[in-house]
Amino acid sequence: MSSWIKYVAKRTHGVRPELFDRAWQSATIEFLGSDEPMCRESRRLLAGELKRLYWPETPRQISAKIRSARVMAYEMLWEDQVEQLRSKGHKSSRMEADEIVAQAFGLESGENFRKFMTRNRPNKRFPKRK
Q1: Contact indicator for 8, 24 with CB cutoff of 8 Å
Q2: Which residues are within 8 A (CB) of 51 and not within 5 positions of it... i.e. 6 or more apart?
Q3: Residue 26 falls within a domain, yes or no?
Q4: pLDDT band at 130; cut points 50, 70, 90
Q5: Which of 34, 66, 96, 130 has the fewest CB atoms within 10 Å, i.e. is most exposed?
Q6: Tell me, what DSSP letter sits at residue 92?
Q7: pLDDT, averaged across the chain
Q8: Domain total for the chain?
Q9: Looking at the domain assignment, is residue 125 inside a domain?
Q10: Which of 60, 30, 35, 61 is closest to 46 using CA atoms?
Q11: Is 101 in contact with 121 (CB distance < 8 Å)?
């Protein structure tokens, strides 16, 4: 997982949903001022964010892109947690990862995390559970 995503996840932990967008942007700007190295994917994402800020879009487009970045951060952390739990031999690594990611981002439960991902998923990695 990129150091930028980890930094932003740490800085936005527990932030109220209505303040998340501003906290995410502030954390991104703080990260740019730090001496942390950035991978190619992080640079691409940040370039897109700066482009969006210089050439504003409609509020709906902005919200959709921020929500997409939030989903991407959740998904990257979730995948990392699943791998760590599997390497430790946990059998229900996906459910445990749901709970861990929910806590990391200040969501109430793993089920709330799953619902958010189902509603906002850009791909089919998070299918609806029956």
Answers
A1: yes
A2: none
A3: yes
A4: very low
A5: 130
A6: T
A7: 81
A8: 1
A9: no
A10: 30
A11: no
Residue 99, CB-side half-sphere exposure with 13 Å CA sphere? 5
3-state secondary structure at position 11 = helix
128 vs 55, residue with greater confidence = 55
Q: For residue 125, what are the contacts with CB-CB under 8 A and spacing of at least 6? A: 75
Rg (CA), the chain: 15
Q: Average pLDDT, stretch 68-97?
A: 83
Measure the CA–CA gap between 108 and 112, rounded to whole angstroms.
6
129 found inside a domain: no
Instruction: Out of 17-21, 50-54, 73-77, 108-112, pick the least confident.
Output: 50-54
Question: CB of 81 within 8 A of CB of 1?
Answer: no
Q: Which tokens hold the place of 74? A: 């959740």
Token pair 């299918």: residue: 127
Q: Tokens 């879009």 map to which residue?
A: 57
